[in-house]
Specification:
Blueprint: E1 3-12, E2 17-20, E3 28-31, H1 34-54, H2 65-71, E4 81-88
Antiparallel strand pairs: 1-2, 1-4, 2-3
């Protein structure tokens, strides 16, 4: 079983939360609650990666949190939450 851990940034919005992963550009999720947004993001990443494979693309390797913090590429606010989601890629890879 191959499980990958992807970094996810959750941000508060006027209507709830939105989430994105810097390792999976273009993949986002949003919902009213923090927990639901995180769950939807895990599902969105899985769906996105499955689609990438179907189109002949390779699955992006998740980078470490340290990589992103050191690179200065993140523009985070004090309210942003950084966490990780686990994706079982062995089901479709």
């Amino acid at each position: 079983m191959t499980i990958l851990q992807y970094n996810v940034v959750l941000q508060r919005t006027e209507n709830g939360y939105c989430a994105y992963s810097p390792d999976v550009p273009g993949c986002i999720a949003a919902d009213d609650s923090f927990e639901d947004t995180l769950q939807l993001m895990a599902e969105a990443i899985e769906f996105h990666l499955e689609g990438m494979l179907e189109h002949g693309e390779s699955i992006p390797e998740p980078k470490s949190l340290r990589y992103y913090l050191d690179s200065g590429g993140w523009e985070l606010t004090p309210d942003d939450v950084i966490t990780q989601v686990s994706v079982n890629v062995s089901e479709f890879a």
